[in-house]
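Internal ticket - ligand job 116, zinc ion:
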Amino acid sequence: MSDCIFCKIVEGKIPAKKVYEDEDILAFNDINPARPVHVLVIPKKHITSLATVVAEDTAVLGKMLAKANEIATAQGSPDGFRVLINTGRIGNQEVPHLHLHIVGGPEPVGPMLKRI
Ligand code: AMP
Ligand code: ZN
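stdout (structure tokens):
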């Protein structure tokens, strides 16, 4: 996807602070961190969102989750963390390349959603 900012990060055309990389996935610091630890984990292959995954994506999705604890621990959140995947319009997804947020740090991240 030539106009996708996260594909451009994969291709090295946009800089990012990479914290983990293998042949299938890339993790980098969020440019606007919501917590002291805020890492985005993406598939290197362009997948738009959880709403567009196909059966062949199962392995990479599993890898993104399976690596989360290792990434969080290495980045300074060894006692737990939260993962989030915003999806589509209702999920307020801003970047249309599937990404898993890892948020954490030394303090608990708080309630899952603000109560209204
Ligand atoms: P979402 O609302 O789930 O689509 O989240 C998109 C996230 O991408 C936001 O937390 C942004 O701060 C982050 N983001 C956008 N552009 C970049 C970038 N170039 N490098 C790192 N993070 C980015
Ligand atoms: Zn992309």
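Auto-summary: The chain has a mean pLDDT of 96. Residues 1, 4, 6-7, 46, 97 surround zinc ion (ligand 2) (CB under 6 Å).
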